[in-house]
Design a protein that fits this description.
Chain lengths: 471, 459
């Protein structure tokens, strides 16, 4: 009260000009604040983004498109395997620098061991049979043959079947989800998932686009069409890496169809709020919505986020600018392709793997699983088209694209794995994901959790769905 | 008020004094050992051995088989060179390589100059050494070391060498030329230990020149060669008589450079900017930042994961050709990205381009060549050599299509003794190979200027 009186006295003690100046400033500040708040509110008022349209086949678009769904079987031949073996035998190794671990990329000495296993022990015919244990299909959408597997729940009866689409990323594939599939199609308190796992066009058995411009919005629209064609009006989505962006776009395009969106990787907005929290976070985490675990995973910020990102994003830079050049050699050299892909399975599972002679690869994955994923890229020759996806998505400033400026309003679940490349705290995710139902700090796992920690990921997806279904 | 001024002057004086102290700084370095294991006991092997480039039927058959087995992927419709090397044109290049390119004849061409190898710090260093046949009465040939870059090689200088060792005009200077291969490139052995950066290469080349008996010499370089020769000038300024470069990106943009970027468009005269400078620098977001981002993906991946990046290229000659020749297209003229054939054969012959690629292929050096990026950038841009200026007389040839345009003001920040700054009529990043005559002329005029300066000093 006294202070207020003091202020009043001071104010009325000034002369008129000064008083007007102060009032003017106060009004201006209030107006600025109001405009700022309104502008920020406006940007997230958009509740959906337009579907758009596209056609990606070769040449001209025909009048009618075939909408049937055809069964598909993965095949191989003796010629294919012999060709692979011949190329492996003719590979020209370069010795690694002494004592360099995985710091210069995939260590050549360890690569020799992986290649030896691939050449002598890995059984591609057996793996193909294993791939075919789930039913595969292809259907033409927007001019491209889209590949997917479609798995119904194990038991029928009076359990509910919740449709769920899982979307992979790079350098992964539909195969990453083979361990989590049986866990999802089991009965959980009266419901089970009916799972659809497509391949992004340009990856694996999905045809590659022939026209420029195929970005995540196009992939999202194609996958929405797929779900519609399969007869699902409402469904769940799960994704990581590119799958995270594509499923997010799907939720932005048709929020009415998406019951729940589950992500294991989320890209945080840049922006003032993020910047402020980076500066204040280490000292007053609670003020900016950080938990102790957030602080532990985010800081030291420069080291973990900027420096590390620079060290790990060379592939992103070259693929976003010169994909045809970057992938050319990899389509002739299976050894080169394996090194390129498996280096990610090493570093992105745990950054410390870069100091190990063997990149820590076999600590969390089996060589059979890793090489099956590589074989999907090899046998389909899809490495270049998979890389083009980077250029198509980064061709203009990604922060200016309509989906980056629009919020996500469907119920969202986030699984934050500790060794994910970039940690995204809940407070950052909330800037765009306005309806976060669950945010879980996972105890272990990195960038490929479906393959590395299938049980942990499955449990989080299940609890998320249960929360939404109110079970 | 007066006190404030006094304090400012004292502080200013102190800063100038500290900066002056740096003037006498010479780049320091220590010996290294790059061979396998520990250095052996006993004397160093100082012998110089003759070397001949050779090939075999097996080598060619293996190359052809790999080409025949390549698995092409069609480029997107209407994408030219915007996504990298266009697959349709790549097939044409490979077809020429398979049927018309004569590697044996090119090997003979490579051997027209004498090659040698000598062991320095544990690795075999390869070089070409060309002595002039005749030297004008009363003069001696001027020793000149020329250092290549990536993805080039000593071969880039083959058009330039005769113009320097046997100039057509009797009034021109005659040079004795040494063209080494950077360790890890071509016929020079690759280092086996971590840490081989441009300063190590510079030190090794100093030892080479000393071993060849040169007390003083000139140096020329572009791309990595620019940095290696600059380091040579920083390591032993009294030994390097003159430094000629065609590439000089500022390593640490200081206050003046930054100011010139911000104000240069409005006040070009203030910074000595010519019309060309303004045209090539502005709009600076697009021309400096975006263009660099578009073209530096290779640098980013090679500076972080060279072993991964090069792995496939050492098995696939087609992949290697695409990777290397994409640079010869785009870095010669950015507009070539809009062409279906990347404009490759407008300035180069396929024979020359493929000979350079064959040097990488037959020596299997692509991975080690890429490691040089990690060794140089791995610790960031704060290396000691980046903070020390160059006092050796320098000549800069400014080619219009060089990757990064550097106006005179920027070059002078680092090269404090800039004797000549020549805006060239045409040419891009691989100027020595693309415009050898223009390059030879500039080296001639620069060397003449320095020689005259030296003469005046003696008198």
């Amino acid at each position: 009260m006294q202070r207020l009186q003091l202020l009043k006295d001071t104010f009325f003690g000034l002369d008129v000009a000064q008083q007007q100046l102060i009032i003017g400033c106060a009004v201006a500040a209030a107006a600025a604040g109001g405009i700022l708040t309104y502008a920020m509110q406006r940007s997230s008022k958009m509740r959906s983004i337009p579907l758009g349209e596209g056609w990606w086949g070769a040449g001209e678009k025909p009048l009618l498109e075939d909408q049937k769904i055809y069964p598909f079987t993965v095949e191989t031949s003796d010629e294919e395997i012999e060709d692979l073996h011949e190329r492996i035998d003719k590979t020209r190794f370069t010795d690694p620098l002494e004592d360099s671990g995985f710091q210069y990329g995939f260590n050549s000495t360890y690569l020799k061991k992986v290649i030896s296993y691939w050449r002598n022990t890995f059984d591609w015919k057996k793996q193909v049979a294993m791939l075919n244990k789930y039913p595969h299909f292809k259907t033409k959408i927007e001019g491209l043959d889209v590949h997917f597997i479609h798995v119904r729940p194990l038991q029928s009866g009076d359990q509910r079947a919740l449709p769920l689409m899982l979307v992979h990323g790079w350098p992964g594939s539909f195969y990453e989800f083979y361990k989590i599939l049986p866990l999802l199609t089991q009965n959980h308190n009266g419901f089970a998932f009916e799972v659809v796992i497509p391949s992004i066009p340009g990856y694996g058995f999905s045809e590659a686009p022939h026209k420029k411009g195929f970005n995540s919005l196009a992939a999202a629209r194609i996958f929405l069409t797929l779900m519609e064609r399969l007869g699902f009006s409402q469904f769940y989505l799960q994704g990581g890496d590119w799958g995270s962006l594509i499923t997010t776009n799907m939720a932005q395009m048709r929020p009415d169809c998406v019951k729940g969106l589950h992500l294991n990787m989320c890209m945080s907005n840049r922006g003032f709020k993020v910047l402020l929290s980076i500066i204040i976070g280490p000292y007053l985490p609670f003020l900016v919505g950080f938990s102790q675990e957030d602080v532990r995973r985010l800081f030291p910020f420069f080291q973990k986020n900027v420096w590390q990102m620079l060290e790990e994003s060379g592939y992103l830079h070259i693929q976003a600018t010169k994909p045809d050049t970057a992938g050319r050699g990899l389509n002739d050299s299976p050894v080169g392709l394996a090194a390129y892909i498996l280096e990610k399975f090493s570093s992105w599972t745990h950054m410390k793997n870069r100091d190990l002679e063997d990149g820590g690869l076999e600590r969390k994955f089996s060589l059979d699983d890793l090489l099956t994923n590589v074989m999907i890229y090899w046998t389909t020759g899809s490495i270049i088209s998979s890389m083009r996806f980077y250029k198509e998505n980064f061709s203009s400033n990604p922060n200016n694209r309509i989906d980056a400026k629009t919020g996500i309003f469907v119920p969202t679940g986030l699984a934050a794995f500790p060794q994910e490349i970039l940690h995204c705290p809940k407070s950052w995710a909330q800037i765009r994901y306005q309806n976060i139902v669950s945010y879980t700090f996972m105890p272990r796992g990195g960038h490929f959790p479906a393959l590395e920690e299938p049980r942990l990921l499955a449990n989080d997806v299940i609890q998320f769905a249960k929360a939404i279904e109110n079970l | 008020m007066f006190t404030a001024l006094l304090v400012a002057l004292v502080i200013g004086g102190l800063i100038i004094f500290l900066v002056q102290r740096r003037k006498n700084q010479v780049l320091k370095t220590e010996d290294g050992w790059w061979g396998a294991g520990a250095p052996p006991e006993g004397e160093e092997d100082l012998t110089i051995r003759s070397f001949k480039v050779t090939t075999t039927d097996e080598e060619l058959e293996d190359l052809y088989r790999r080409m025949d087995q390549t698995r092409p992927v069609p480029s997107l419709e209407d994408s030219q060179f915007h996504y990298g090397f266009n697959s349709h044109y790549l097939q044409k290049v490979v077809s020429y390589w398979r049927k018309d390119f004569d590697w044996r004849r090119q090997v003979d061409k490579l051997n027209q100059y004498p090659h040698f190898k000598t062991n320095i710090e544990g690795i075999d260093v390869h070089y070409v050494h060309v002595k002039p046949k005749t030297v004008p009465e009363g003069t001696k040939a001027i020793p000149l070391i020329m250092v290549h870059g990536w993805p080039g090689s000593f071969y880039e200088f083959y058009g330039l060498i005769p113009m320097l060792t046997e100039p057509s005009d009797p009034g021109q200077l005659v040079f004795e030329v040494v063209c080494p291969s950077i360790p890890g490139y071509g016929f020079s052995e690759a280092p086996r230990k971590k840490g081989f950066d441009s300063v190590c290469a510079a030190r090794i080349f100093h030892k080479l020149m000393k071993r060849l008996g040169f007390q003083q010499f000139y140096a020329h370089g572009g791309d990595w060669g620019w940095l290696v020769t600059t380091n040579m000038a920083q390591l032993a300024p009294k030994t390097v008589k003159g430094l000629h470069v065609n590439f000089a990106p500022p390593s640490k943009p200081g206050l003046l450079v930054t100011l010139s970027i911000v104000l240069g468009r409005r006040f070009p005269k203030l910074f000595g900017f010519t019309e060309t400078d303004v045209e090539r620098l502005y709009p600076c977001m697009e021309k400096l930042v975006l263009e660099s981002m578009k073209e530096s993906g290779y640098m980013h991946i090679q500076a972080t994961k060279p072993d991964t990046a090069g792995r496939g290229l050492n098995d696939s000659p087609v992949g290697l050709a695409a990777y290397i020749l994409e640079k010869f297209s785009t870095w010669t003229d950015h507009d070539f990205r809009n062409l279906e054939d990347g404009g490759l054969t407008r300035k180069f012959s396929l024979d020359d381009l493929l000979t350079n690629v064959m040097i990488y292929w037959t020596s299997g050096c692509i991975v080690s060549s890429m490691r040089f990026y990690k060794e140089n950038f791995g610790k960031g841009l704060d290396a000691p050599h980046a903070k020390i200026p160059v006092f050796v007389p320098t000549g800069f040839a400014c080619f219009p299509n060089e990757l990064m345009h550097t106006p005179k003001l920027w070059v002078k920040q680092k090269y404090h003794n800039l004797v000549s700054f020549s805006p060239m009529q045409r040419g891009g990043h691989f100027a020595a190979m693309e415009e050898p005559r223009l390059m030879a002329e500039d080296i001639q005029q620069f060397t003449r200027s320095v020689e005259e300066m030296m003469k005046k000093k003696k008198e």
